[in-house]
């Protein structure tokens, strides 16, 4: 174990490991690109759905069950299925990552909307607000803490899973895991896993701190 940790430290700190297109800096940038783009696409899909069902109260059963179905999908299996249908491209990776991120965003957005006090909605309507004004000016601001929690959870899940890009010959930090397995290089496998874990933890802490700053005057929301 000592030799393994010593090798890991040397691998992480070696200058050659940070240089070039195979270096940690480049692979990290690729990993973040995949993760952030997939999360943004998922948010563009899931936020309107969660807001709509939370505002109208319609379609909640279908939406939540579809979200649960997406959460249960085997990510690697989905990548392989789309890969066989579309060929060598990043589409299989993005589709799998988006499918992974959507459930958390839909569920938390819906939960945030339903947590809004009905009396607040009634008061807004009583002041003459139209439905879209109630949604955007009253419900959405009050639901934001839980919505941000959903986005944070989705991003962390995607970061941890974006290693699958290397499964279909693309980049990211997963390249070290899959190349290390192919080469039977345990240090490289462990290095890739540690880097992914560190990125996920750092992002989680950063987003959690941002939430606390933005909503410091509101009651805390569950993580």
Automatic annotation (TrEMBL):
<dbReference type="GO" id="GO:0005886">
    <property type="term" value="C:plasma membrane"/>
</dbReference>
<dbReference type="GO" id="GO:0055085">
    <property type="term" value="P:transmembrane transport"/>
</dbReference>
<feature type="transmembrane region" description="Helical">
    <location>
        <begin position="91"/>
        <end position="111"/>
    </location>
</feature>
<feature type="transmembrane region" description="Helical">
    <location>
        <begin position="153"/>
        <end position="174"/>
    </location>
</feature>
<keyword id="KW-0813">Transport</keyword>
<dbReference type="InterPro" id="IPR035906">
    <property type="entry name" value="MetI-like_sf"/>
</dbReference>
<feature type="transmembrane region" description="Helical">
    <location>
        <begin position="60"/>
        <end position="85"/>
    </location>
</feature>
<feature type="transmembrane region" description="Helical">
    <location>
        <begin position="186"/>
        <end position="210"/>
    </location>
</feature>
<dbReference type="InterPro" id="IPR000515">
    <property type="entry name" value="MetI-like"/>
</dbReference>
<keyword id="KW-0472">Membrane</keyword>
<dbReference type="GO" id="GO:0031460">
    <property type="term" value="P:glycine betaine transport"/>
</dbReference>
<protein>
    <submittedName>
        <fullName>ABC transporter permease</fullName>
    </submittedName>
</protein>
<dbReference type="Pfam" id="PF00528">
    <property type="entry name" value="BPD_transp_1"/>
</dbReference>
<comment type="similarity">
    <text>Belongs to the binding-protein-dependent transport system permease family.</text>
</comment>
<feature type="domain" description="ABC transmembrane type-1">
    <location>
        <begin position="28"/>
        <end position="211"/>
    </location>
</feature>
<keyword id="KW-0812">Transmembrane</keyword>
<feature type="transmembrane region" description="Helical">
    <location>
        <begin position="32"/>
        <end position="53"/>
    </location>
</feature>
<dbReference type="InterPro" id="IPR051204">
    <property type="entry name" value="ABC_transp_perm/SBD"/>
</dbReference>
<keyword id="KW-1133">Transmembrane helix</keyword>
